[in-house]
Amino acid sequence: MERKYTITYHVGPDQTLNESTQNFEAASLEESKSTHMLSRSIAKRIIVVISMSIVIGLAFGFLTMFIFLNREIEDPLAFESDATANQPKPDEQMEEMPLPKLTAYVIQLGLFETEESASEGVSDWQTKGYHPLKWETDEGFRLFLSAYSSKEEAKNAQEALIDFDSSTYVRNWESSSGLKQLSSQDEEWITSFLDQWPFQHSLSDLPDSNLFQPTHQFEDEKLQRFYDQVLSILSEYDDEGIIRLNIMHAYHQFLLDDSL
Known about the structure:
Layout: H1 19-74, H2 76-84, E1 95-99, E2 103-112, H3 115-126, E3 133-136, E4 141-148, H4 151-159, E5 169-174, E6 178-182, H5 184-196, H6 221-236, H7 240-256
Antiparallel strand pairs: 1-6, 2-4, 2-5, 3-4
Helix pairs in contact: 1-2, 6-7
């Protein structure tokens, strides 16, 4: 509906129109019409721009959906491959493996309430040319000298110590047990290790065996550290009883200590 404007005329005393007033009112009318037309023009342009943006957005969305659906129809396995690409293969999946206790006959040198007193005991035996090991237990810190596959072997080794300390004695000892999440490759190695324990006939050949090769790499970081510890033990000691004891203790820590 067209907007109507009211025009007011000022009439002088002589009943005639004031010419200046008439001209001013006419000019105001023209200016109002121009402003109104400009506002309507701007509003139309804004509406057109918004409408075009909506149309373009919808068109782009339909095009993308069409391409996506068309790709799925042509190659339905492509999406399945993408979804499973990062999943481990069946043979690479970690499996929970129960790891048993390691047992051996050890020569015990003493039992100490504190780690400090146990360390003093270690120093005393080191001055005699021995290399004892501290083993933390619920009762305190036990001091072991070596470990053997049979009680008879342990007794024979103990006889050489009686001249130093008659309080030494032989006892059966065992490590901890537990569960570990291991890959098939790591599980294969630890199984071979457990099958050969206590290395009764092969301990002297361990450094050259396929079981302990410096280039061997494990997926489990803790198992890798245990393996590296064993390599260090084999290179540091020559006595089989000491080697067996230290390997047994490293295995014990591998199962219990999260810092390994």
